[in-house]
Amino acid sequence: MTITNDYLPILILILVGIGLAGMFTIIGLVVGPKLRTREKAAPFESGFLGKGMEGYRYDVKFFMTALVFLVFDVEIVFLYPWTVQIRELGWFGFVASMVFISVLVIGLAYDWKKGALEWE
Amino acid sequence: MAFVTTTDLIPLIPELILLGAAFVVLLLDLFAPGSQRTTLAVTTIVGFVIALVAEIQLLDSGATGFYGTIVADGFSILFESLYLVIGILTVLLSLHYLDDHGIGFGEYYVLLITAVVGMMFMTSSLELLVIFIGLEIMSISSYILVGIRRRVPESNEAALKYLLLGAFSTGFLLYGISLLYGATGSIRIPEIVVALQEPGALNNPLAIIGVALIIIAMGFKVAVVPFHMWTPDVYSGAPTPVTAFLSAAAKAAGFAMFVRVLLTGIPLEAELWKDLFWAIAVLTMTVGNVMALMQNSVKRMLAYSSVAHAGYIMVAVVVGTPAALSSVIFYSCAYAVMGTGAFGILTVRHFGKTPDSYDDLAGYARYKPCLAFLMSVFMLSLIGLPLTGGFIGKLQIFQAALEEGWVWLTVIGLLNSALSVYYYLRVVVCLYMREGSVPDGAVLEVAESPGFALTGLVGAASVVVYLGVFPQTLLELAASSVSTLF
Predict the structure, then answer these.
(1) Torsion of CA A98, A99, A104, A106, to 10 degrees
(2) What confidence score (pLDDT) does residue B265 get?
(3) How many domains does chain A have?
(4) pTM here?
(5) Pair A31, A68 in one domain
(6) Residue B6 with chain A: CB contacts under 8 Å
(7) Are A44 and A67 within one domain?
(8) Residues A106 and A74 reside in one and the same domain
(9) Of B2, B6, B26, the CB nearest to A106
(10) Domain range spanning residue A16?
(11) Could you give the CA distance from residue B249 to residue B244 in angstroms, rounded to a whole number?
């Protein structure tokens, strides 16, 4: 079975991706300074220690911020294409977008009222 | 030119009404905090009722939208109405429970509404990805609902288990959809059907693995053995009204998806699939009933019994004829109502505590004769005794199975029904034949039978009896809605 030309770029992309990732890992291993301290040798996951963390209370405000960011992020993704096509879409598109925005405004109002925008 | 017009929204009117109701409830809770909880509940119920009216208006309209992606056929309208009715029942059963357990979140009702919206999208869509999104809307809402008693470890455990296994099964569904897309070049059910009917299409390994993965994902959602492991823990850890909602509406939505995607979408006449479903049906009935037999907690018993009932429905799925499919619909409706009712009784406090074990049910006949009677009605219906909806449902299923010559399957199903008599009647025995002693310090409140819940429970019991005595209306609806599927 031959690989069609359509898929060749994807294959190249995959190979380049693997190659780059592998290269950086190897460079890091070879060139990087090695200071093996107790802290560094400990297993960890996403910045949290691997053990001794049961019942540990971490701050939720980062997650809140991430969620609020999501509200605006998703909004932008949909609003850019709309603004480009606003004349073609006409009033129907306008009303649809307003509905969309008002849903997000409700989300924002919810965040605000619940105190998700307060940092302290 | 407009790609999407307002006429596309017509089949979505009930969903849109419900979404509007969700926002109204959210804003009410946000800007009028401390307002009566009852206001939120009533607003939610009003939303459900308006959506139900819209649903009935859509009947026979044959409306489709978004290039046939969303349809309002008899099948989807029947199931969506069921979710709405269960939604109303759940709200009625929630009010006192939320007060008793200090769950004062207005979000509870919002999530309940969004879960129903998700189910409605699942049921009314003909495109696998929209079905998937509906499933996710439903699932994510229910993960939070399960864990809403956030200070209770069991509730957290249930929510985490549900989330992990739910996400896992969702992964299976997506892989299945993508493989099926690879095999057929479409994610729309009508086109998949056409593509799979070409000679040899069903022997394509992509299609076989894709269908198998989808079966696994749906197995998780409707909790059939061996994908039922999460059910008892999640059902017993969740707040009881949420358990009722999950076991009734979420399961019905799962079966609606099952019928829509697997039974009408993908030709499963091959022996391979029949044998697989046969094994699943037998295992589900048997494991569900045997495990239910061994439980000491009534809530866990009902959780396993819901697995067993999924097994009975799977019998009809194995048979797969139109008559069997309409019995799937009838049984889903009947089980939804009687299951919600049975769980609903457990939401009401007795001697100052929410009943859990069989012993907690002692003394009902003396102090709460009305609830004891209603519970007995639900139990008799779950057994499948005549004059109840459960009887007609089982009759339909096993009749359809016998007509197609599935004798052994019927025999195993009936033996299982006989097995279930023991643990259902055990409940009735505890209700009527055990003297309950009032625990020290417990106050016998007259108001322990809250009005909203009582209304809901009486309504559910009436529906159960109505379905048992006059099943004709629903049977005809079910049969006609199955005919719209093909």
Answers:
(1) 110
(2) 63
(3) 2
(4) 0.88
(5) no
(6) 92
(7) no
(8) yes
(9) B26
(10) 8-49
(11) 8
